[in-house]
Amino acid sequence: MKIVVLLKQVPDLVEDLDIDDSGTSLDYEYLKMKLNEFDDHALEEAILLKESDGAEVVAVAIDGDDVDKMLFTALAKGADKAVKITGADPYADNHALAKVMADAVSGMGADLVFTGVQSAGDRDGQLGPLMAVHLGSPSVSVITSVKASGNSVTIEKEYSGGVMAEFEVDMPAVLGIQAARQTPRYAPVSKVRQIQQSASLEEIAAGSTDGAASSTVTKIAHPEKGGGAKMLSDVDEIVDILKEKGVA
User: Fold this and answer.
1) Model pLDDT, residue 217
2) What is each CA distance from 225 to 27, 167, 218, in whole angstroms?
3) For labeling, which of 13, 74, 179, 187 is most exposed (least CB within 10 Å)?
4) Which residues touch 94 (CB under 8 Å, ≥6 apart)?
5) Rg (alpha carbons) of the chain, rounded to whole number
6) Could you report the per-residue pLDDT of 110-150, keeping only the tens digit for each?
7) What's residue 123's pLDDT?
8) How far is CA 238 from each of CA 34, 227, 229, 244, 246, rounded to the nearest angstrom?
9) What whole-number distance in Å separates Cα of residue 248 and Cα of residue 242?
10) Pairing of strands 9-11, 33-35
11) Could you read off the pLDDT of 204-234 as tens digits, one per residue?
């Protein structure tokens, strides 16, 4: 079984986010990026299947800042191969990214394609379903467990309110992972450096995005600041305010 895991860099939301001069996008020049946490769970779930069923795990990402380090870290965690797609915009919308990634993945012979169920950097959380359309494969999202069973996999999917359902899905398929069965493992810096010296990244040139649907951002802005909250110390203070407003 071969599992392709799509990895994506997203803005670190701990940092302040600036808007570029166009007013339609974040300013990425000095923005700190990190691996999308849902993609990290997708990678962990794939590595668990490698350990239990001997799956081959291939990590794939679109070229960009710190992508090499992210892919070498995936290898240090247990991925067997890492592939970098060059010549594509890593900040494009999911429609364009799905077209580029589907073109790159289509020749890899993947039984399963794992994506994070969503990312902080997208607008619709639809990368997996859109890729499935291009690949002609079934797609299920919000997955919390994947177990191999012959030519199919048994998955657990979470619905609103915590309701869980179990499905059997024929391969090949595209699965949007919400959470792995365990916390994503940590790769020590020393091991990542060792991998950087002994392994290499494969590269694939991005295909055309012609024919892909798209969406356009017309304006992006910081949330408007409110007047702030006032902490009240006792009931009398509350009553005084209500009297001022004529409701008590």
Assistant:
1) 86
2) 21, 45, 21
3) 13
4) 122, 123, 124, 125, 126, 127, 130
5) 22
6) 999 999 999 887 778 889 999 999 999 999 999 999 999 88
7) 75
8) 45, 18, 13, 10, 12
9) 5
10) antiparallel
11) 999 887 777 777 889 988 888 887 888 888 8
Handedness of CA 66, 57, 39, 122 (dihedral sign): positive
Residues listed for the chain: 248
Burial (0-12, 13-18, 19+ Cβ within 10 Å), 89:
middle
| Burial (0-12, 13-18, 19+ Cβ within 10 Å), 93 | buried
